[in-house]
Amino acid sequence: MRYTHSFGKTNKQAPHDADSANARLLIQGGFIDQLAAGVYSYLPLGLRALNKVKNVIREEMDALGAQEILMPALTPKDNWVQTGRWDEIDVLFKLEGAGGKEYALGSTHEEIVTPLVKKFVNSYKDLPVAVYQIQDKFRNEPRAKSGLLRGREFSMKDLYSFHQSIEDLDEYYEEAIAAYNKIFQRLGIPAIVTEASGGDFSKYSHEFQTPTESGEDTIFVCDKCQYAQNLEITEYQDGDACPKCDGIMRQMKAVEVGNIFKLKTRFTDAFDFHAAGEDGQEHDVYMGCYGIGPSRLMGAIVDVHHDDQGILWPKAVAPFPVHLITLNAKDEAVKDKILRQAETLYQDLDQAGLEVFWDDREVSAGEKFADADLIGLPLRLVLSEKTLKENSVEWKERAQTESRLVKLEQIIESAKSFIQS
């Protein structure tokens, strides 16, 4: 993509109400645009990053054996009444349709997925089964804040699993924890498995918490074995001994980037969902749910990976891995040569499978470099009169302070090796 063709530009002024690094940098960098509190448009750079987060999640869900579906976001009141949650969930967006029928915009989808799966499961032979979707959710948060970390409309991956026994649910639950850990590892953010309230379902649920000062949660984490509990359930204080090892429990701020529950029969009972066992008798169906917010993850990545100049995108989710910059020359013949060389390099990188964001604007070198740091793509390649004299390109990795010259004929293989490492 050429900068001059890109919809969405960088902004030198930080939003006056930005209360987190991700809110400030994603808006300044031209990734998102705020329509209202907790409601954002994703511009081309931001949508590319969000889709890459989703793709990592999708790959690991598929590897877990789950099947992707897509359920309606507009959900009838009757389903919520059947589970007793129409008046219980205070963040539901409720609306009235034609004929006086009432609906809610989905804040979660247990009420929809449970009767859906029931239609296709008759006996133990159809179990276990796991389905997931990636869809926008809606929650009427009293205070949307911290950019993408708490929105009123947000992207959610919700996975639901159904089992013939609690033992089978327990086994799948552990597999889901492993899959989640792999997702966060691939996305380049720390995620601490944290015990939290299990509500009406279990003693504990498990949250995946990423330490950040923008986070709304307080957790206590062992500095040695990483055992952790959320403040809402813990009896620990900062400096207490860890109950699992000889480490010390430390207090920190964090943002929840994932949450998993053993729902057991809470929703299958509500919809009279049972399945015939090997003995021919009807048996309970046990259920688990597993959530990750791709948009919140995107915000958390920026909160974790930034410096004073801008974002430092991990390679797995950078909207483009390569930021190509051409610097103007006073001599028109030299300028044309730079542009011709840039066009060739741009095409060669693209053919090698390396996506390129080319800053081809007629602005100063200082402005281009400042924008490159703000946008934060992993690798910056600069073509200028100086580099052409050396038959080279200036190579600078966003996470490093030093640059170096790399010969033009070595750029493609060097870039491929860097991005794949």
What does this 3D model show about the protein?
It is a single chain. This protein is 31% helix and 29% strand. The model has no long low-confidence stretch (mean pLDDT 95). The chain is of the alpha+beta class and 421 residues long. It has helices spanning 21-28, 44-63, 77-83, 110-118, 166-187, 266-270, 294-304, 332-351, 365-375, 385-389, 408-420, and strands at residues 32-36, 39-42, 67-68, 74-76, 93-96, 102-105, 129-138, 153-163, 192-197, 204-211, 217-222, 228-230, 249-264, 274-276, 282-284, 286-292, 322-326, 356-359, 379-383, 392-397, 403-407. It has two domains: 3-205 and 256-304, BirA Bifunctional Protein, domain 2; 322-420, Rossmann fold, CATH 3.40.50.800. α1 (21-28) packs across α7 (294-304) and α2 packs antiparallel against α5 (166-187).
Keywords:
421 residues, alpha+beta, Rossmann fold, 2 domains, five-stranded mixed β-sheet, 21 strands, 29% strand
Query: CATH topology of the largest domain, which one?
Result: BirA Bifunctional Protein, domain 2
Tell me the radius of gyration.
25 Å
Residue-averaged pLDDT, rounded? 95
CATH architecture of the largest domain: 2-Layer Sandwich
Shape: elongated
SS-based class: alpha+beta
Total number of strands: 21
Oligomer: single chain
Work out the helix count: 11
Overall number of domains: 2
Poorly predicted runs are none
Main beta-sheet annotation: 9 strands, mixed
Estimate what percentage of residues fall within beta strands.
25-35%
The helix content, as a percent range, equals: 25-40%
CATH class of the largest domain: Alpha Beta
CATH homologous superfamily descriptor of the largest domain:
Bira Bifunctional Protein, Domain 2
The N- and C-terminal alpha carbons lie at a distance of 23 Å
